[in-house]
Amino acid sequence: MSTRNKDYNTSRKKLQLPEYGRHVHNMVDQILEMEDRDRRTQAAYAVIEVMGNLNPYLRDIPDFKHKLWDHLAIMADFKLDIDYPYDPPSRDILMEKPHKVAYCQREIKYRHYGHTMELMIRKAIEFEDGKEKDILVWQLANHMKKSYLTWNKDSVEDEKILEDLAIISKRLLKVNEPELADVKGAVVRQPYPVKPKTQRRNNTNKRH
Prior knowledge:
The chain is an all-alpha fold. The protein has two domains: about 15-90, no CATH class; about 115-185, no CATH class. The protein is about 45% helix and about 0% strand. It has seven helices and no strands. The chain has helices at about 20-35, 35-55, 65-75, 115-125, 130-150, 160-170, 195-205. The mean pLDDT is about 80.
């Protein structure tokens, strides 16, 4: 069978916004070919309705109609001369670099416990001495043990957790219970990815 007349996507014009599909892009191209400005504007409003129906999630975004018109301008390569309901964007927006994201610069001595744990320990220091504070500190220590096992080893001595708690709290907190809870069963570890049977079979054949 001859493939000369087949129309493959690889040979077509690149889509500016692939999420709208080729049919919408073709409609935009047809609008560009219309000579009458009023007719172009009327057709553009019809295409905007189609775009909104294809992407209903945009309706939850503030000014979603404005975004649709911006997308229309982009698909038209900023060449569409119509009566826009909003100021159309310029080509420069496609060249803008994203704003640099400011990374958190907090100093965390024990990253496996996390910054939130340090905040809770500081808050626990403010509690008045008594049974409620003792229970809170014991629970914090157990959570620290769980976090430690999640990110480090299969087992850890209670003394290690208690010493870390003492360091973080500047020796202002201590656990009055003789030992911490067994939290191994509550630790969720990420399983190793299992190869599909066909892939394992192919690997075995290669070895032979």
